[in-house]
Amino acid sequence: MLSPIQLYKQAYSGLSINSWYLSLVILINRSGTMVIPFMTIYCTQQLHFTIVQAGYILGIFGLGSISGAFLGGKLTDKYGFYDVQVGALLLGGLLFITLGFQRTFPTLAAFTFILSLCNEAFRPANSTAIAYHSSPENKTRSYSLNRLAINLGWSVGGAIGGFLASINYHLLFWVDGCTNILAAIFLLKLLPRSGFTKTTKVVSGENIPTSAYRDKIYLAFIAMAILYATCFFQLFTIQPLFYKTEWHYSERFIGGLMALNGILIALFEMVIISNLEGKRHPLRYIIIGVMVTGIAFLSLNLLPPVVWSGIVVLVVITVGEMMSMPFMNAFWIVRTSEHNRGQYAALYSMCWSMAQILAPTVGSQIILYGHFTALWWVLASMCLISACGFTVLYRYIDKS
């Protein structure tokens, strides 16, 4: 039996230096992610918008993200992942700072859309870059390392964001913008623009889908992923408002919960991936993770409004996340080749962007007519439907 040190060494060994550099860039970028987790509170408490308006703002962010993911995939195929990453980070940084000066609903909505479009264009380019700088044997762990950096950044950003929000909400926009720009500078420094600007080339071979948009299995997978992602995004959109208004947690404690999510993932996800990868079909792990997430949301109707309840819910959601999201990446990446990877990456990013629209928009409407209690029941049911859908998909693939 391997010791804990050996387990961690095994989990992190064999990854390319460029994969580590890309993860460092993401870590810097995500360490400044503070605006979105506190946007509902900012809109309702600082700008005095209604909860429905706050939901619309986050829904508009998701709409821009869908457009940005599609655009980012197209630009990556045409110009290469490097230029798209740098451009999206620099422009996104400036737009975050500008967003903090908007005070009315129309202007905040307009700049939110533009920002999210630019911000999300980064994702397909980054996914393509990770695949380029990894080998077939360690692609899943390379993506998991990137996820680790994202979540570790979330832990830092959430903790600092909660502290800054208790002082002045406008500081969130400045920090978010500056870390975007800093990440672009690090990318330029650590991975100078060289011969890997374009990654697309036609690859011939059997059983390689020509287009992500014609891959029926992948489209079914995306549909189930949207259901799950719509539920998961409540953690960063509506759930903080629930903690603030119903369970009366402070902004600092809410930020601490966001930090705990990232810390748990940083400590355990890579080791879990290293030990589970290849032993079962990725869909089997995804099914378990989605079901666990549903249980977490249902528990918000059953647990008392005390500190330990928030911690328990967060831990359970994080377990569900670690069992599902890494293997979602594993599922889609094996269906790609170099000539169509941008399409698959864009569609997967669009899936999460669509969930960003549905999560706050649908969530706020359910709260308006049925309060938070109805929301948690609906989310638990959606997770059950998603898990059943993934089960059907797994059985179909297993028989074919």
TrEMBL record:
Residues 18-398 form the Major facilitator superfamily (MFS) profile domain. The chain crosses the membrane at residues 20-42, 54-73, 79-101, 148-165, 171-191, 217-241, 253-273, 285-303, 309-334, 346-368, 374-397. GO terms for molecular function: transmembrane transporter activity. Gene3D superfamilies: MFS general substrate transporter like domains. Its main location: membrane. It is found in: Cell membrane. InterPro entries: MFS, MFS_dom, MFS_trans_sf, MFS_Transporters. It is a multi-pass membrane protein. The keyword Transport applies. It comes from the Bacteria. One of its GO terms (cellular component) is plasma membrane. Keywords: Cell membrane, Membrane, Transmembrane, Transmembrane helix, Transport. This is MFS transporter. It comes from Mucilaginibacter mali.
